[in-house]
What does this fold into?
Amino acid sequence: MTTSHEVPAEPTPFRLVPGKTALIVIDMQRDFILPGGFGESLGNDVDQLLKVVPPLAALIAAARDAGIMVIHTREGHRPDLSDCPPAKLNRGAPSQRIGDPGKYGRILIRGEYGHDIVDELAPAPGEVVIDKPGKGAFYATELQDVLTGAGITQLLVTGVTTEVCVHTTTREANDRGYECLVVSDCVGSYFPDFQRIGLEMIKAQGGIFGWVADSAAVIPALAALGTPLSQV
Ligand code: TIU
It folds into this structure.
């Protein structure tokens, strides 16, 4: 039995299963990441998220080379805000709430420039893009159907922010029976303490929500996935 598909992860090695793994890239949207955008207007340090872009671009490239499914998500709402509950809409500073005009268009509104994914990580033609109204990528979306249809049982989880949409999605996926490997340098939080503790929470208690490894550990295993077993 080969171990080349095995990622040295915590709390235990994580074995990638050919044909069963997808990479999910959560909410790498201009509104959250770019200077002058919604995230920064809330007082957040967007450099903490910007630094995720280069390693994540490399991981996405490795996934595409290996032929594994890449799924992107975007958090946002309809222009009439009919899918945004008041409890979400009413939070945040007045004039900087969802639907208000921002530097990159109406904040977190589908179709606006700021709602879309940063250029460096743009979805390739044919890749699935899930528009989600909540923090989790399963709530009120077609993600479950997409994964079931493709026979996916494992997720490599990336994107922003670690303690919010990455955590919510990982927890939702874990409860649905997916094995989740969170890629530590390909997820980001505005808050360094939340980044550190958010990752610890995933892998604590024997991997209560999943596994954690960095992209340097994942990429060689992905490369092996693109190679027939007889050659590894
Ligand atoms: N994508 C995501 O995490 N949405 C957020 O609102 N995150 C914050 O950390 N605010």
